[in-house]
Amino acid sequence: MLSSHQIGQVERAADHIAVLQKGRVILAGAVDDMKSDRKIVEGIFPSETIALDGLRRDARIERLDQSGRILRLTVTADGGGLAAMLSQMGAQSVRIVDLNLEDIFLNAVAHGSQTADVVEAR
Hints:
Layout: H1 7-13, E1 16-21, E2 24-30, H2 31-37, E3 39-44, H3 53-56, E4 61-67, E5 70-75, H4 79-88, E6 93-98, H5 101-109, E7 118-121
Antiparallel strand pairs: 1-2, 3-5, 3-6, 4-5, 4-7
């Protein structure tokens, strides 16, 4: 067992992790599984008016951020399917970004401290 706030060290040494916040496990699992499943899906739309209806209820989306014409989805599964959905919704450009363990950790612990640009977080 290893306890550390140095996420890079944890990523190099551990096969499985558990992230604790205020005494509760908020994230646990195999490092490789977390890194393969969690992605950022980013779409750039022609205007700041983006219809988010279906996205608000999608269980694959952990966090949804909008900053102007850019919509970022932090997803836990099926990044390719969600990228296709953004294209169908009218995104002019879509990309999928891999997350490292530090990104995954920061997203997990940041739920209580969202920025003003956040549209919705689960």
